[in-house]
Amino acid sequence: MSGTSADGIDAAIVRLAGVSPSLRLRLEGFHRAEFPAPVRAAILRISNGGATSSAEISQLNFLLGELFAQTALDACRRFRISPRSVDLIGSHGQTVFHQGLPSDFLGSANVASTLQLAEPSVIAARTGITTVADFRPSDMAAGGQGAPLVPFVDYLFYRDPRVGRVALNIGGIANVTVLPANARPAQVFAFDTGPGNMVIDALVRHSTRGKRSFDRDARIARRGILLPELLVELLANPYFRLAPPKTAGREQFGQVYTDRLIEWGRKNRARPEDLIRTATLLTPLSILDGLHRWVGTRIQFRQLIISGGGAHNPLVLAQLRAGLPGVEMISSGKLGVPEDAKEAVAFAILAYETFHGRPANIPGATGAKHPAILGKIVSAPPRPVPYGARPHPRR
User: Fold this and answer.
1) Alpha-carbon distance 389 to 76, whole Å?
2) Residue (of 157, 195, 148) closest to 179 by Cα position
3) Which pLDDT score is estimated for 360?
4) What is the C-alpha to C-alpha distance for residues 345 and 275, in angstroms, rounded to an integer?
5) What is the distance between the alpha carbons of residues 76 and 123, in angstroms, rounded to a whole number?
6) How far is CA 108 from the centre of its chain?
7) pLDDT band of 395, cuts 50, 70, 90
8) For all residues of the chain together, what is the average pLDDT?
C-alpha cells in the first residue's frame, strides 16, 4: 500500500492460516520502495486538487500498477520467496480522492466517493498472482465512509478479555480503533482524529525546498518554539468536534491547509522551525482531544498500541504520554507487527478475507449499515506478462 503521505510503497509478505477471528499470522518480510520524484509530485498535486486531466489520471493509474507490481516482485526477491508460492496480493493502491460523507454533486445531494489508483489488472499480469484491490467502495455502497478499514485487523489481534485498548496509527492521517475489554465486533468503533504526519511533512518539504520529506527524530521541531496563538486557531478546526464515525484526508488537511499555515507564518514573521514545532504538537493534541472527547466518555482503556511513521517522533510520543497518565503505551512491534509494516499487513488480511468471501468492515468504525465483503478480485493470468510486452503486429 501507499498511504496519504504518498512517500512510497510498503510491501509485507505474510503467511496466513485459519479462519477469523482465530487467524494465525507470520510476517515473512517487509520491504519499502520510494516513488520516483515526478510520480510523487503528480500524486500530491492531484490529491491536493491541482489541475489534471482524465488522461493523466488514467496514465498514472497504470503506471502505479507497474510500480506496485515491481515492488511486490522486489520484496519476493529480497526475501528469497518465489512469486509462484504467493497465493494472493492485497493492494490498497494510492488514494487521490476521498469524500466519505455525501455532498451535493450535479444536483444530487447524496454522492460520496473514493478513488485509489494502481491498476490491479496490471499487478496481477506482471506478478502472475491473483490480486484483490479497491477495498473502500464496498463499504461506501453499504452506507459507510469507506474508512477506516484497519479496525477489523485491530480487533483480530489486539482485543483482550480483561483490558480495554486503543490502537493508534499515526500515518499521514492519525486514526484510532477502540477495543473495550472482551469486546464483540459490534462494540468496536474507530475514527480519524485528524492530521498525523501530513502537515508536518508538507511544512518540512516547503522549508527545505524539497531536500527533506519528513522531520527525522523531530530535529527541526526541537529547534523551534510553540506558537500558542496559531495552535489555538488550529485546534478550533470544526473537524475535531465532529462525532464519529468520521474520516479525514487531504481534502481537510492537504495543501490548502498547509498554505494557510505558511501564509500565517509570513504575516506573523514566524520561523519555519516554529511552524513545524506547532504542527508537530497539533498531531498529539488533536489525538488526545479525540480520545478524551469521544473515547474516555464511553470506555476505560489502559493500553495505547501505537503504529505508523509518527510512532518514531519523540515529541509526539512525549505529548501523548503527558496527556494519558496511567495509560501504558505499547509499540505494535512488541505485539508482533513492526510499526511501519502494520497497514501493509492489514491489507494482506483484508484480501485474505475477501478471497474467502467473508465481510471485513466494522460498521461501528465506518458507519456502514451492514457488514460488507471488501474489494474486487482480479484472477491471475496463465503466466506473468513482463512490462513492455507487446503483441507482434499482424502481417
Assistant:
1) 22
2) 157
3) 96
4) 34
5) 14
6) 29
7) very low
8) 94
**5-63: pLDDT as tens digits:** 888 999 999 999 999 888 999 999 999 999 999 999 999 999 999 999 999 999 999 99
**How much of the chain exceeds pLDDT 70, in percent?**
98
Place of cell 516554529: 274
Rounded mean pLDDT, 137-144? 96
For residues 120 and 76, the answer to whether their CB atoms sit within 8 Å is no
Proportion of the chain in helix, strand, coil states, percent, rounded to 5 = 45, 20, 35
Q: Does position 392 have pLDDT exceeding 70, yes or no? A: no
Please state, in angstroms and rounded to a whole number, the distance separating the CA atoms of residues 86 and 69.
13
Question: What is the separation of C-alpha 385 from the centre of its chain, rounded to a whole number of angstroms?
Answer: 30
* Residue position matching grid coordinates 455502497: 141
Q: In a 10 Å sphere around its CB, with 0-12 CB exposed, 13-18 middle and 19+ buried, how is residue 276 labelled? A: buried
Task: Write the CB contacts of 21 (distance below 8 Å, at least 6 apart in sequence).
Answer: 155, 156
Spatial separation of the C-alpha atoms in residues 369 and 83, rounded to whole Å: 38
Question: What residue ranges define each of the domains in the chain, with the CATH number in brackets?
Answer: 9-144+342-378 (3.30.420.40), 152-335 (3.30.420.40)
pTM above threshold 0.85: yes
Q: Which amino acid is at 67?
A: L
Cross-strand bridge partners of residue 90: 132
Round to whole Å and give the CA distance between 105 and 101.
12
Cβ contacts of 40-45, under 8 Å, gap ≥ 24: 40/6, 40/7, 43/6, 43/94, 43/96, 44/6, 44/255
Residue whose C-alpha is closest to residue 358's, from 191, 185, 157, 190: 185
For residues 366 and 377, give the distance between their C-alpha atoms in angstroms, rounded to a whole number. Answer: 22
Strand partners, 329: 304
